[in-house]
Amino acid sequence: MYQKLLLALMALGLPVQALPAAQAPAEAPQASAPRLVIGIHIDQLQEEYLRWFMEGFGQDGFRTLLENGQVYRQAGYEMAEKDNASVTASLLTGCPPSQHGIVSGERFDRKAERLVSILEDPAWLGNYTREKFSPKALKVTTVSDELKSACSESKVFSIGAAPEPCIISAGKKADGVFWIDTRDGAWCTSTYYRDMPRWLEFLNMQNSRSSRLDRSWTPKYEASRYRYIPWQEASSVFFRNLGSPGFREKPADYRHTPMANADVCDFAMQLLVNERLGQDEFPDLLNLHLDAGCVTSSAPKAAVEIQDLYFRMDEDLGRLLKEVDTRIGLDKTLIYLTGTGQCVWPLSQDDQTESFWPERGATLLNLYLTALYGESHWVLGQTDSQIWLNRELIRSCGIDYGEICRKAADFMAEMDGIRQVFTAPDLIGGRTRDKYVENSFRKDCSGDLVYLVETGRNIQWESYPQYNRQLRYAQMHTLLVFYGAGITAAEISDEVSVFDLAPTLCRLLYIRPPTACQGKWLDIQAK
């Protein structure tokens, strides 16, 4: 085009000096995305424990992250239900459960009339497990999905002791998702993802159930080290034999021990080597899921046990950070750490603590509806925060759905221990004026009634004692830490949201945010 214009001017006898020289297009700036992003998600992380135990930590784990990273002390959950699955999904999608679909780790199956995993999917088989899971319940994309869409050469892996957070954080396009099978302790996956790597099959053959589960948990360090919990009672030695009959009946308890955390970190280091993560110009993503919760919700945890769990986790993280620095370089690796769910507190042993019994509440509600509409099976099931009504029966009897929900809610609101009750029609219509409850509700899997129990009550079950706990609403925030990749140390006290992690990661990776992302990106300062 420029040459044609020049010839035309010359033919007319016009001076060509007046024509500005053609400029070469400017070079696009080179993106400096980290070679590897490692997400460390710790279920039931207690931020105050990190502060209390700082003097007891080593130099390479939590201390490195908290003293040299950019630390946000108040990342708000902004949802009523805050378990591992729902929070993990919100972190990696940037939106609440009402949009991403993971309202909790379990959903109620109306046909079977029981709770099942939110990810249960009979269309896919388990690999080294009988469990059948897929990410089908996720209704939006995750950071992992957007990274794979932007760069197919990038590799995405997610590992942990339990399946739900691993699958949720990995999304639908991951290269591999692995968790520990509770039946025999093997690393397992779903056939939804690619086949089990050969090196992992060999690892499973080396590590039998007995080598993983038949172990004991006792204090690892000198008794003098366990002194950092304020007002703690005299230190006492604890002993948990994971090979005892009690644990063999409940092998899932192993997932909540520091040994499981150590196994996850060891596996992460093998993944770095065998899958060559962070070894090329295409950014990779590795999500780790650790646990800081109770082994059993019915037994109070001693001060020594709590500290031992955190000290061991600190040591495991230190080993992992050293391995990353050696193989990839911390300057080329972005690491973030965050909590994924409020702490599950054991039952209070105080005689003054009142209890709420969900099963008894559901039975009373069914009796009330029977008095109104005739004897039948009106209540299908319940949790300690939701009630599922028999919708098919309601339709077949010609009863107005909104009316029966309102009457049921009015009745439940009079029960001792219930603070507030919401109906599904009101939540769907946005008429509750409670943003957190609305954020945790989704019409295709939530109950017909959502209720809040008074703070401080003991939740007690006759049929499911493993769900017994004391209800506390104190933990409304978690910690969010960014470290490595040239990030400068800083501590920010301003409140942010768990929804802000996803857009921040996407900005640092130069990719689009997830499809329903509503968070804002955080201003991460780097050298």
Short description:
It contains 18 helices and 22 strands. It is an alpha/beta fold and 527 residues long.
- Note the gap between the termini: 44 Å
Number of strands: 22
Binned, the helix content reads 25-40%
Mean pLDDT across the residues is 89
Q: Which outline best applies?
A: globular
Strand content: 15-25%
**Poorly predicted spans:** 1-30, 295-300
Class from helix and strand fractions = alpha/beta
Quaternary state of this entry equals: single chain
Individual helix count: 18
Radius of gyration: 27 Å
Major sheet description: 11 strands, mixed
Report on the structure:
This protein is of the alpha/beta class. Strands 1, 2, 5, 6, 7, 8, 11, 12, 20, 21 and 22 form an eleven-stranded mixed sheet that branches. Strands 14-15-17-16 form a four-stranded antiparallel sheet. The N terminus is likely disordered.
Give a topology summary.
Elements: H1 2-11, E1 36-43, H2 47-52, H3 62-68, E2 70-76, H4 84-93, H5 97-100, E3 106-109, E4 114-117, E5 126-127, H6 143-150, E6 156-160, H7 163-170, E7 176-180, E8 187-190, H8 198-206, H9 209-213, E9 216-217, E10 240-241, H10 245-249, H11 258-274, E11 284-291, H12 303-327, E12 333-339, E13 355-356, H13 358-373, E14 379-382, E15 386-389, H14 391-396, H15 401-413, E16 418-423, H16 424-428, H17 435-439, E17 449-453, E18 458-459, E19 469-470, E20 477-484, E21 490-492, E22 496-497, H18 501-509
Parallel strand pairs: 1-11, 1-12, 2-21, 2-22, 6-7, 6-11, 13-18
Antiparallel strand pairs: 2-20, 3-4, 5-8, 7-8, 9-10, 12-20, 14-15, 15-17, 16-17, 18-19
